Amino acid sequence: MIAALSGTLVEKGLERLVVETRDGVGYLVHVSQQTLAELPATGAAVRLLVHTEVREDAIELFGFGTATERALFHLLRRVKGLGPRTSLAVLSGMPPGALIAVIAAGDVARLQTIPGVGRKFAERIVVECREAATAMAVGVPTVPLGMVGDAALDEAVSALVNLGYKRAEAEQAVKKIRTPQAPVEDLIRAALQGLAG
Question: What is the pLDDT of residues 45-77, one digit of tens each?
């Protein structure tokens, strides 16, 4: 199994690219629009984390710019009916941090704004991935902010900042929570619901 791929970016397409390794082998890799947007121009060195999909009729590589995006891909693959291409299309819909926030908040309507995601798929994603997405948000390394006062509240703010929200809006969302003594997972979930609304 291929877990990572380093080499020269020799070709870029809409949802796939070719990475040529030092030994001269070119690997076709499917990527999300998010990863594609972060890649350098062709001819530059590149390193991707990889998921190898093995089927009877094909072996396909799916590449990711970050460990968070790859973890989200594996999470989405647990959802019944979401194959690798569809999971990649969901990842293309918004940055990984925002996608984690939307799933953790249970925002079915926002998920439906992603092309190819209808109501049933969106609901299935929320039902099957919400708990893990909240854990992913909580598992983001925290930086002591010292602005909210309580350690759990600080951790919730830090998790939201690491998910891509601005510090000021994260602090505002956390301050609006009515039950500040709740576990940090619940604080993050409540803040995400406030931010999504």
Answer: 999 999 998 888 888 999 999 888 999 999 999
Fold of 4-64: OB fold (Dihydrolipoamide Acetyltransferase, E2P) (2.40.50)
Say which CATH architecture domain 67-138 belongs to. Orthogonal Bundle (1.10)
| Model confidence, pTM | 0.69
Cα gap 20→10, rounded to integer Å: 7
Rounded Cα gap, residues 17 and 120, in angstroms: 31
Sign of CA dihedral 89, 162, 165, 156: positive
Hunting for tokens 């973890």 — which residue is that? Answer: 71
| Secondary-structure class of domain 151-196 per CATH | mainly alpha
